[in-house]
Amino acid sequence: MTKVRLGKTGIEIEKNGFGALPIQRVNFDESDYLVRKAYENGMNFFDTARSYTDSEEKLASAFKGFNEEYPRESIIIATKTPSETREGILKDIETSLNYLQTDYVDIYQLHNPSFVPKLDDGSEVYETLLELKDEGKIRHIGYTSHKYELAIEAINSELYETIQFPFSYLSTHKELDIVERCRAHDIGFIAMKAMSGGLLRSSKAAYAYLEHFENVVPIWGVQREEELDEFLSYMKDDVKLDDELSEIIKIEREELEGEFCRGCNYCAPCPMDIEIFKCARMSLWIRRFPPEPSLTPESQEMMKKIEECIECGECKTRCPYGLDIPELLKKNYEDYKKILSGEIKV
Q1: Is the peptide bond preceding residue 271 cis, with omega within 30 degrees of 0?
Q2: Taking all residues of the chain, what is their mean pLDDT, rounded to a whole number?
């Protein structure tokens, strides 16, 4: 297994972390099992967020509120606040500490904020984080984003100890630039969406690609045991980026180049209740994975909701990648109807 120093935090963790967003979707017994298995097999970094419903509570449940079997100091916990006000942050940290059953959070991250808080900018956001650090409730301050410009501004501010940003083998020169700048500034880089929101076929190729970057710590979203087993096996086998995996990456890049939905869901909510991040990715799902689950009556009804789009543009303004979402929805729907009619074979 490979250890990595998380930038100027000085925290040393296993190269691979546990992304706790998906455990929202399973019950407590299932999440207890997954989290404990991850920890007992070497994963010691767990990333969650106040916005992930009961994810924080499930981590605390898995670790039994921390004890001799699961000592707090051996487990690195990162959580996030979506708040951009002093009052909201103070409320969120108390809620997180209560749900996590701990006195402190190792890394407290601003969760995709609309700006980069700085000292004396009038927002009081960064000053509040410093107060929490002085009080011992948080140990390090991080910043998460999906927008290149904001991530660069956060790096250049020299105020943040970690940056969390989407990074996978589909990433462009912009994401690579962020990784390099973080290395140069001794800022820990936490890679979210290392499987590109589930679109990548090969977890082994995804793992090997990120293993190539010595300052990058990927957090793998885990919901099922077989997913966890894959990543644990790669940690033990010391997987490297060989010719076979490089060819997989080459083919995947060719198939997925251009504009596509990453599944971050920041476009939501839709005023017409269209499930945008599912509908806008439907063509990719059907062509890359067994199509039957995407062709059920329930899925057809979900896609039919696209007809109700009023093109208000709200989703476009919220998309971190600048996608023309209404147009993307239309294309997916037309493609979907052709698949249903048999005009297109998959």
Answers
A1: no
A2: 94
